[in-house]
Design a protein that fits this description.
42% helix, 10 strands, 6-stranded mixed sheet, alpha/beta
């Protein structure tokens, strides 16, 4: 997989267990680059090109820009829509058919018992919408806990599974990651075949898993 930008001489690639680290030292340029990535993610105009082999990928479907560690919303509308779409298919499948029948029967018994307290007869649907009940109990991805690196991996796994996200851009995360956690993040992401890059305003230390690309304060490219 590679991410290409027409102004950059270097193509961002994921090879040999190394991950791109993009350092944008000039603040205005830094903002413009992240804005263009964000626009691409949301279907707007972007000159970034993400590809897998000879196939160009749709940024609005395959790219996720995460502007801060507090932006990894596991209950976002796209994720919840995808989750319940998957659940709807699963409820109709043979694996959950018997369980769904038992749940429907339990709901019908509960409705019947609830109706006994009224002086007038009540009725209910023979085939209740079990997906609505799952929504009623707020079935959702569990919030990730633990160190930031573990939360990043959990978020990538969730988005990859439910949304088919192919590439993640984490902005300003690196300063919150101890070196041991950072290296563990890269190693686990490589094993799980996740593709992500870090965008930072500076980077004082570099680890061997990072493929660094710098645009300095004079907009000179260093790699």
């Amino acid at each position: 997989m590679k991410l290409v930008y027409p102004e950059w001489e270097k193509q961002l690639r994921w090879e040999g267990g190394r991950f791109p680290l993009v350092v944008l030292e000039e603040p205005t340029y830094h903002f413009e680059i992240v804005q263009e990535l964000y626009d691409g993610e949301h279907g707007g105009e972007s000159r970034f090109v993400l590809s897998e082999g000879e196939t160009i990928l749709d940024l609005s479907r395959k790219l996720a820009v995460v502007p801060s560690p507090w932006s990894m919303d596991r209950g976002s509308r796209p994720l919840m829509t995808a989750l319940y779409g998957r659940l709807k298919k699963d409820l109709a499948g043979p694996e959950l058919f018997r369980t769904a029948q038992e749940a429907a029967a339990a709901v019908a018994r509960y409705a019947g018992q609830a109706g006994e307290s009224f002086a007038f007869p009540l009725t209910c649907d023979d085939s209740p919408d079990l997906l609505a009940f799952l929504k009623a109990v707020h079935l959702r991805p569990e919030e990730a806990e633990g160190p930031l690196a573990e939360r990043m991996l959990a978020y990538m796994e969730l988005c990859t599974d439910l949304l088919g996200t192919a590439c993640f851009v984490f902005c300003g995360f690196r300063g919150y990651l101890p070196e041991s956690d950072l290296r563990g993040l890269y190693q686990t992401a490589f094993l799980k075949k996740f593709h992500f890059l870090l965008i930072e305003s500076h980077a004082d230390r570099i680890v061997e898993e990072e493929d660094r690309f710098i645009v300095d304060s004079d907009l000179c490219q260093i790699f």
